[in-house]
Amino acid sequence: MRVALFVPCYVDQLYPRVAMATLDLLEQQGLDVEFPEAQTCCGQPMLNSGCDQDALPLADRFLDIFSGYDAIVAPSGSCVSMVKNHYAHLVHEDARYETIRTRIYELCEFLVDVLKIESLPVKFPYKVGLHSSCHGLRELRLASDSELNAPSFNKPLQLLELLDGIEIADLKRKDECCGFGGTFAVSEEAVSCTMGRDRVADHLQAGTQVLTAGDMSCLMHLAGLIRRDKQPISVMHIAEILAGYGVPQ
To answer: By C-alpha distance, which of 198, 195, 193, 213 is closest to 129?
Structure first.
């Protein structure tokens, strides 16, 4: 399998440890992973702000760079959803798009659905609270919606439960938005921060020691509030936990 690592902007610029953890985790599964150095932003910030024509050149560039791979894996549900679901009206006439759309995976999705891993040699003796990011939950279907009377599943949780010594925090609102929302956090700062603090409060009542998610943008928002309010919670991307990285001090 020819696998490409797609690294989102937030990870590349601010949290490179997440990219390294993703690479380590994939290589631990015996994969030969390539990192196309020409990759840039997928265009999500532009499209989210209604600037479709500004996003189009980045979508074209993405197809140029990532065509030919058997799988494209990224530690970000929002960026994967951008390509899988929101490139459609930008590059739908490009024959390469349908192939790439079916070959791009969020990290947990790839580990569960493609590699079907059933064990991880990692010990993580902490109480972990899982934040279900909106794009991964609602658009990629990485987990079932808690409000629906339907069979439940949760791919990130399924992976976390493979770790030795881990305890999962029982949240009251398992799939509520953190309030980040990209440019929403700028245009509606007060609402965004209130939503984020609500999520942190839920983790505090559940006894969360380490808060994790599949999107570093959501975690950046929550970590900022945790740091400002001096709350006793560490924040780690799920790739860092699954790859066996220690809790940052």
So the answer is: 213
Contact (CB, 8 A) for 110 and 25: no
User: pTM higher than 0.85, yes or no?
Assistant: yes
Query: Is 72:105 a contact under the CB 8 Å cutoff?
Result: yes
**Cα separation of 56 and 40, whole Å?**
13
Nearest to 74 by CA among 29, 110, 31: 110
Both tokens of 110, joined, read 């790839």
* Residue 207: C-alpha distances to residues 118, 171, 232 (Å): 27, 9, 10
| Rounded CA separation 161/219 (Å) | 20
Please give the average pLDDT of every successive group of 10 residues along the chain, which has 249 residues: 95 96 97 96 88 92 96 97 92 91 97 97 97 94 88 95 98 92 84 95 98 96 96 98 91
Whats the size of the chain, residue-wise?
Answer: 249
Give me the residues paired with residue 74 across strands.
106
Strand, helix or coil at 73?
strand
Q: For helices 216-228 and 189-206, give the axis angle rounded to 10 degrees.
A: 80
SS3 119: coil
